[in-house]
From TrEMBL, chains A, B:
Residues 430-651 form the Glycosyl hydrolase family 67 C-terminal domain. It comes from Saccharothrix lopnurensis. Residues 123-427 form the Glycosyl hydrolase family 67 catalytic domain. This is Alpha-glucuronidase.
Length: 654, 654
């Protein structure tokens, strides 16, 4: 079998470190990981790992020698910090193994710059203590969703034939990649917990132990998605009522058994009362009752429950204009602020709908000041091209994390960043080789949301591609790929318009008469969803000032969100000076032209990137162009047929 | 296990015959079948099977004693005839076992009327020598299509776990039902021949022998769907080119092996160059080359090849207005008239598209006077409610078989009627108990297309339901159910508007931007497909006079087909005096009201039909009402949003 692509950790990326004389001090599992990294790097590049004597060291990596990389308090933020300096010799000093590992990779990313001019000590600490990737992996292959739900890179790297794989080399490589970018938590199974996967909590627990053992040396704690009705389905109890003492006991016992096997287990991820999953509503309890039940089972061991706020009516009647899915999470959770235990993290999707290319920031993030929150992204490109399209999402996440709410940013308000992973057994990990940049960038932004997205992209390109001449074109191709994707898909924040079920490719009316609450309400006169307080669903009222007013008026609402908040006539003039319908036409023609340019840039990289990468990306760009053209033509035709307004520039609309 | 429902052959239906003194003469397999039927009937109802002496006989059934119920010439129409008379005693005389069987069931259907006033001898012969049901059954369960493709009544009665079932009692019951209505051919497997099912022709042939043995006593010959590329996939040859001698030899050998095992095997059913199936086009050959290849392998044994005319481009570009799927079968096959061997039957779907609730009759039926044709229907309700909706299709088939072309009717022009069966393991056979009427009516119309649909319905009701008070309401509920279904679904012949993939429930734009060639082209001004010679695709030109001119003009085109042939403004006034858009609103409101009435009629039958039937139908009527309401609201809203024209009667359009 071909070995997997090294992603951003190819051998040449270690040359600056590996060609030098390096000392690693300290003990403990993660210090050993750092030592092994250094040993491999110097073996490849002619440097030396120098254990004794003051022998012309060029890099010293000083761990504190403590063994407590995972402390039972559940917070190991302290030990994740490191300080880097250069005064003749470059040094990294950390209070724990995790910090040393992150400091080591910081130096790898700096490259030769780490060994150039002296610089004063600089302390580095993560902005978010929680930096987590969720895997929507099933142990078995689901007939419709495949093995990895919303996965676009082959089957699960964790599971085969209903069990954890025998050979976990691939998982170890993955854990190393995550450790190198500071990801410190991973959810091992699909939030939609099916019957087979439920058993990971009980009889398959020894399998989970094996995964935990593989992730641990890289500073990554494992978590399980659990079904809220497990006391019934696994335990045989008559109820899963969170206030029932037998239910509490069941969770306490099950959780204690997990910690007996995995002392540094991270906790549970729960999708409850959501899209058909069981939850506390069935027992007349609220989500604080539900979350606290699990939180109290986890608390003695320092575990956390990640409780998803993605609760809405997925059997809505499209005729019912009063119900607004966008309101649901706030309606359900804002009243519960203060009711959650301290080891509950409410996991909130970044937008009020579902991982669209463009949504406003979820108002839930400003609505629960007394609750720990994590914002949830999709590294997996469910609605953003499914790893067939280049769509570099780091700028989107950056924009969201920097979004101001009540004088702070989203990044300030949350305790963590969680995302759905995009990896699978594919030899490039992510299907599209360039989608590795999203995985890398997620880790980097989770560590520090103030990093500039283009700087993160440059880091990734610099590590991944050896030929300096490839870097400019790669950046050109990738850095605006999210706005490009937005241009040729659903316009002005209206969202969806995807093919029902698999969510790839256009279907303008695909969800228009569905029970999913995702409508655009286009008619012969106009399009968009009236979510104002004045005449609509009142969703704008869930925002604090100034957004509640900025979004309320079409005059102040940003163009890119206009149709999310307002139903306007096709002739409505945007801030850009264009009418809505002309904007639709223009952006769709432009989007396709940009994909043509991307393909041209890529063609120029032949010979400058490895052949396997070149060929795969070239093929996928052809598919992206085909699909973008389909989006352009379907959306333009749809709005031309509805509005009757011809394109101002006379281009072909079918 | 609950025994299956007796359908139209319950014990009470045999009382008129079974309470009398009956003689059966003649020998042979089918005469034995008749004798066994009589024996069972008299045992149940107190009559007698009288073998010797002139003992007050009330019914004599006279077979000719020949053993040749299946003659090797491939035509056994002669032996299917019978003559029935009454002169004191009722008599049935037949030239063969099949005729005797049909005559016996004729008397069963007559009931007491067969034993009332005398009547002169009347000869009965089938109008169509070919009366065939195709089963789209797979030996294995297909992940998307299930075991029975487009089946709505559970898994296959033939197959389990990749083989023919051990227990064939259910198949024997089915064969008896088919024999009783004169069906004389059955296709055993899906026309989409997958890898597993291909082996029915070779290593699973002993399994097919077992099925043939079960069908034979009821006068039903078995057929296999075969893949055109079988010489490659099964035979390991490098080609399936129909002109290649090794390919010919392979088919000759395979076919000889089938006939060695099943001397009365009926022949092959072939879907070639259609929706991705292999065919002669791959070798630069035409469909006559392809069909004749198989015909010549079958000819020495009296076998027939059923070659489907369902050939079209299923990867059409929706932007391409010049390509018209409706034209495809005629374009492909009309030029080949005269080129087919005499044992080829070209199997033509009744309409140019695909089994819609309303289509014009296929012009192919008038276009190949020197070719044997069969018209193909769907008893399975793929596009007509999937056996969740009451939709009595016999009036549709009657209308088509009576449709005049070149001074004759469709029934005159064809040599056979073929349909896709609607049965499965469901205890009512057909999912919806009232869908049994379609299976019954298919056999009856295939025997005699001049029968009145309401008379056929009355026959079925009379046989199936014992309580005479149930019969009027049942007729009221069922006889207009096809026009009702048409009213609440796609309007004025435009077709489709179904959910892609499973084809159940509305999706007005579901196929509008698809590669399937099934579009309605609705915009803000109008709707419909211009298939005229003057300004459209020219499809009208495929019809003989007068239809080529009747359909060409919106002035003469029948309302119910207007949007199939013309793109018209919403304000276009129909012959009914209504505008197109008001017609859409009115029919959709009416259709739902009719379903409400149907449910009310059914509610009145509680206690008059068996409880199991009552409950099942009541449940399904609730689903039909839900689905019809969804159709009404989606279609009305869609056209209101497009046209902006309000309902003249101010009813709610969402």
């Amino acid at each position: 079998m071909t070995p997997p692509h090294p992603a951003w950790l190819p051998v040449p990326a270690f040359r600056p470190v590996g060609s030098r004389r390096v000392r690693v001090t300290g003990t403990g599992l993660l210090v050993t990981t750092v030592r092994d990294e250094v040993a491999a790097a110097v073996a490849a590049h002619g440097g030396a790992l120098v254990d004794d004597g003051p022998a012309d060291l060029e890099l010293v990596l000083v761990g504190d020698g403590g063994s407590g990389e995972f402390d039972a308090s559940g917070g190991f933020g302290g030990s994740e910090e490191f300080t880097v300096a250069r005064a003749g010799t470059t040094s990294v000093r950390a209070g724990g193994g995790a910090g040393l590992l992150y400091g080591f990779h910081h130096v790898v990313r700096l490259g030769e710059a780490a060994f150039a001019a002296d610089f004063a000590p600089r302390r580095h600490a993560p902005r978010q203590p929680i930096r987590m990737l969720d895997h929507w992996d099933n142990t078995e292959v689901h007939p419709f969703m495949g093995q990895v739900e919303r996965g676009y890179a082959g089957n699960s790297i964790f599971y085969a034939d209903g069990r954890v794989r025998e050979d976990l080399d691939r998982v170890a490589e993955y854990a190393r990649l995550l450790g190198s970018i500071g990801v410190n938590r991973v959810g091992l199974n699909n939030v939609n917990v099916h019957r087979a996967e439920a058993r990971l909590l009980t009889d398959l627990l020894p399998d989970v132990v094996r995964l935990a053992d593989v992730f641990r040396p890289h500073g990554v704690r494992v978590h399980l998605s659990v079904g809220f009705s497990s006391p019934v389905t696994l335990g045989g109890l008559p109820t899963a009522d969170p206030l029932d003492p037998a239910v509490r006991e069941w969770w306490d016992r099950a959780t204690a058994a997990v910690y007996a096997a995995i002392p540094d287990f991270g906790g549970y991820v729960v999708k409850a009362d959501s899209e058909g999953r069981p939850g506390p509503f069935a027992y007349g309890r609220d989500h604080a009752d539900g979350a606290n039940l699990l939180a109290r089972a986890l608390a003695p061991f320092g575990g956390t429950v990640f409780w998803r706020a993605f609760v809405y009516d997925h059997r809505q009647d499209w005729r019912d204009r009063a119900t607004d899915r966008a309101r649901a999470a706030h309606d359900h959770f804002a009243p519960l602020d203060g009711a959650f235990d301290p080891n509950v993290v409410l996991q909130v999707k970044y937008g009020p709908m579902d991982f669209q290319a463009r949504e406003p920031v979820s108002p839930v993030i400003a609505a629960l000041p007394r609750t720990r929150l994590a914002v949830e992204f999709q590294v997996t490109q469910e609605y953003t091209g499914q790893q067939k399209h280049v769509c570099h999402l780091v700028p989107q996440w950056s924009e969201i994390l920097r979004f101001p709410l009540d004088g702070r940013t989203v990044g300030d308000l949350v305790d963590g960043v969680v995302a759905v992973s995009n990896v699978g057994l594919d030899r490039f990990w992510t299907g599209h080789p360039l989608a590795q940049a999203n995985l890398f960038g997620f880790g980097r932004l989770a560590w520090d949301d103030r990093l500039a997205p283009d700087a993160v992209l440059d880091e990734w390109i610099g590590l991944t591609f050896e030929d300096p001449a490839a870097r400019g074109p790669l950046r050109e191709l990738m850095d605006d790929s999210w706005p490009t994707y937005e241009r040729y898909t659903a316009p002005l924040g209206v969202g969806f318009m995807v093919t029902p079920g698999h969510h790839y490719g256009p279907s303008v009316d695909g969800y228009e008469y569905s029970p999913w609450g995702t409508y655009h309400f286009a008619d012969r006169d106009g399009v968009g969803v009236d979510r104002t307080r004045a005449t609509g669903t009142g969703f704008t009222g869930q925002y604090p000032a100034p957004w509640r007013d900025v979004y309320e008026s079409p005059e102040t609402c940003p163009d890119e969100l206009l149709l999310f908040f307002h139903h306007v006539p096709y002739g409505h003039v945007l801030h850009s000076g264009k009418t809505v319908v002309q904007h639709v036409y223009d952006t769709h023609f432009e989007g396709v032209e940009e994909v043509v340019r991307m393909a041209r840039v890529w063609a120029g990289l032949e010979g400058r990137v490895p052949d396997g990468v070149f060929g795969r990306v070239a093929e996928l760009l052809a598919e992206q162009l085909r699909c973008a053209t389909e989006w352009r033509d379907q959306v333009n035709t749809y709005f031309f047929r509805k509005s009757g307004v011809p394109d101002a520039h006379g281009r072909t609309i079918h």
